[in-house]
Amino acid sequence: MKKAVCLFLALSLLCLSSCVSFESYYPSQNEIVTLYKNNRRLFANAAAAALRLCPDSYVSTTDYYRPANSDGIEGLYLADRTDKAKEVVTSLDDRDILTLFEVCGVKSLSTRTEGELAGVEFSCGGSSNIYCGVYYISEDRPVFLSDFAAELDMYENGWKYEGKYGSISVRYYTEKIADNFYYYDAQA
Length: 188
Known about the structure:
By secondary structure, this protein is of the alpha+beta class. The chain has helices at 2-19, 29-38, 40-51, 95-104; strands at residues 57-61, 76-80, 88-91, 108-114, 117-126, 130-137, 153-155, 158-165, 168-178, 181-187. The chain is 27% helix and 36% strand. A 10-stranded antiparallel beta sheet has the order 3-2-1-4-5-6-10-9-8-7, with helices on one face. A hairpin with a 7-residue loop joins strand 2 (76-80) and strand 3 (88-91). Helix 3 (40-51) packs across helix 4. The termini are far apart.
C-alpha cells in the first residue's frame, strides 16, 4: 500500500510539474528588431487596429492567458481598462491583431492614451519582472511606456529611464527601429 501511495504521489507531482509551466521567454534585442523589420506591415496594421479600440485596453489570447472574468471566451479577447475599478473582458474578432499574434508570436498588446499621445505596446516576451517588445507611438519620440511624461536620458543608441515608478524600482531602455516604432526592454 505504501508503494502505491508513493507511486501515486510521484506521478501526481510529475504531472503537475509538466502541466503547470511558468516558463518565460526573453528574446534578444536583435531578435525583436529583426522580427519587426521582417513584419513591418503586420505591426503597422495591428497598431492601427488597436488604436481603434478603447483608449486603455489589453489584448491577448486565451491560449496565452485566461483572465478570471472571461467565461465563454475562446481565442482573442479585449480587456477594457478604461474604468480602473471594473475591467470588462469581451471576445475580439480582429484579423490584423490575430495575424500579428500568430505569425510573430506577440503575446499581448496594450493601448494607452495620455492627452493627444497614443501608444500601442506589443509584448514579445519576458517573465514576472522583465518585459521586452516593440511599441508604436503616435508622436514619433521615445517614451517610458508607464508614464509618457517621464524624462528619458540618452544612453548608447537610445534612451533610458532609471528610477521609481510608484514604489517599484525600474530600469527601462528604448531604441528607435523605424518611424513611430521603438524597441523596449524593462526590468522592475
